[in-house]
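Design request, tokens follow.
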């Protein structure tokens, strides 16, 4: 069995790789940091099973699955790996496409792999065609919910509800993080990594080991000869993007025209 992991989260990729390395029926195991890289890899290699995240920058897992299904070649078996609520995703259980809910268990991963690998080529293509429209509808509804959602934070002994769309920057301050709004700021006792994970669905990306930025505030990107980038956000403030996190800039726009800076 030849398996490709496609997920933009390093921890998720590592966890999947750790689980799969123990199987003796896997002859090849590769991983891609996003759907664009996955397409490049699959132009050279063939896979039986793809473990595919749904939400990824530039090209989603659903869009990648749709492209694979349109190709004039056997379709791999797709296992969607998602952090969506289990009750919502349960709507797809009547369709014969596998999914694994994050955080996933060892048993669930192996069960999904066993089922996916047993499917014939025709079954894989037919089931993928059946599920894609429903997944697209579901993803659109989830995006709408995220846009209207509030975030509850604890500040000065109170629970305050804020609109994440109004937060431009989040900065690490020792054992705290500072959430910056135009109308003020909030200091929370939390790690930046935890905040980054929780606010990722709201469009926050990490641009430095000590800073997150809301992509909806970004107005301009300028590359430096050092390999770093400078972001200008609404209001004129400029921020440096370290080389370690420059790939996160892909998620700022859904479509890039006339530039191959992040391809």
């Amino acid at each position: 069995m030849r398996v490709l992991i496609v997920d933009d989260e390093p921890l998720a990729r590592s966890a999947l790789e750790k689980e799969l390395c123990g199987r003796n029926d896997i002859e090849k195991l590769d991983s891609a940091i996003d759907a664009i890289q996955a397409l490049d890899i699959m132009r050279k290699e063939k896979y039986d099973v793809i473990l595919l995240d749904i939400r990824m920058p530039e090209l989603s897992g659903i869009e990648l699955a749709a492209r694979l299904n349109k190709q004039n070649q056997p379709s791999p078996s797709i296992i969607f790996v998602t952090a969506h609520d289990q009750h919502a995703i349960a709507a797809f259980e009547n369709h014969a496409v596998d999914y694994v809910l994050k955080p996933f268990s060892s048993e669930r991963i192996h069960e999904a792999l066993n089922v996916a690998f047993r499917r014939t080529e025709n079954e894989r293509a037919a089931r993928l065609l059946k599920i894609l429209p429903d997944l697209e509808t579901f993803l659109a509804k989830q995006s709408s919910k995220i846009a209207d959602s509030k975030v509850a934070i604890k500040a000065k002994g109170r629970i305050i509800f804020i609109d994440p769309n109004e937060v431009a920057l989040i900065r690490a301050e020792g054992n705290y993080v500072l959430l910056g709004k135009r109308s003020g700021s909030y200091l929370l006792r939390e790690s930046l990594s935890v905040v980054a994970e929780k606010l990722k669905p709201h469009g926050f990306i990490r641009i430095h080991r000590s800073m997150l930025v809301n992509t909806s505030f970004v107005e301009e990107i300028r590359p430096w000869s050092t390999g770093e980038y400078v972001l200008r956000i609404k209001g004129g403030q400029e921020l440096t993007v370290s080389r370690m996190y420059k790939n996160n800039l892909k998620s700022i726009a859904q479509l890039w025209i006339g530039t191959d800076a992040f391809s």
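Comment from the thread starter after seeing the answer: thanks! The mean pLDDT is 79.
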